[in-house]
Amino acid sequence: MNADTTLEYFRTVSMHRMVDHYLPKFITCLESLDTRIIWACKDDEVGMNSIGGITFHVIEQVKRHTLRLSNPDLTYAKGIEDYFPSMNEEKDQLISELKLTFSHFQATLESVDQDHIDLYNLYHLVEHTSYHLGQIIDRAQRLTGAKYQFVQNGINEKKLRALVESKRANVGFY
After folding, report:
1. CATH number corresponding to 3-171
2. Where are the domains of the chain?
3. Model pTM?
4. Span 8-48, pLDDT tens digits
């Protein structure tokens, strides 16, 4: 693969990982919890962020990266490392905002000129989202006693690879 096709491949893998792998996991976790639990932190968890706060942190991170894809020179005066708001938003509203944010990310990533993609920033977004998703899955499973079994239920690397290969076959980018 040359550099252009490698970047196109990475763009496609990243987009499908975020939209078809991570988003359904976020939704499954949030749907399994009631709104009160999404925003709760127990007394012995002082200083810990709520599942809702972590979700809004991810939403903000994805929004910022999406805007930077369209405007690579965009900078922010302040980071979001401490942005874990307690919004007490209804579960359905939180899920809707998450879906909308990932939808905008997908549309932008698919349409933006390859020269606007900063490989380092895209990689950071994917791994940062994965980290926080892992936190949410762990907390949600502990709180509900559920085992989501994502791999067994079709959200797995084999299916992700098939999506990417299907796109490759249809578009022929490498």
Report:
1. 1.20.120
2. 3-171
3. 0.91
4. 899 999 999 999 999 999 999 999 999 999 999 754 566 78
